[in-house]
Amino acid sequence: MAWLHYLWGGLLIGAGTGLLYVFTGRIGGMSTVFSSSWSYVVQRPFFQQARFTDSRNWRLVYAAGLVLGGLMWWLGPAGGAPQTTAVPAWQLLVGGFFVGYGARLGNGCTSGHGICGMGSLQLPSLYAVLTFMATAFLTANVMRWLA
């Protein structure tokens, strides 16, 4: 049953996002967490919109919980090992920029559309997830061909 932790992870993610929606009426996507966090320090009108400032406190706690969950796994009884990559830092930064830009362009990220949007049967989220998957498939094959 080596796959059981994947099942529990999916069930906990689904339960968490479902409970968040039931009790607050809000979607728990991570790209909004990023923008809400920026609203603390950047005074530009975009970041000072009510949709960011009204929810920034709980979204910051939400993000901290994700980091804390990773730390608990690492320090936990299973003895998770930190992962490293041979990818240069500049490539990670460029990739992060494109992911952030795409999340803003698509009005949400994979967690918002793929988990929350699909879970609430939102048609725009289905289109977004199909676009994410097609782009990932194309990018992976192009990178494999170039390597």
Quick structural overview:
It contains seven helices and no strands.
Explain what the structure shows.
- By secondary structure, the chain is an all-alpha fold.
- The chain has one domain (4-146).
- The chain has seven helices and no strands.
- Helix 6 (110-119) packs antiparallel against helix 7 (123-146).
Unreliable residue runs: none
Helix proportion range: over 70%
Structural class: mainly alpha
The tally of strands reads 0
Rg estimate, integer Å: 17 Å
Average pLDDT confidence is 86
Q: What gross morphology would you assign?
A: globular
Topology as a string of helices (H) and strands (E): HHHHHHH
- The number of distinct helices, counting runs of at least 4 residues, comes to 7
Proportion of residues in β-strands: under 5%
Query: What is the count of structural domains?
Result: 1
Describe the largest sheet.
none
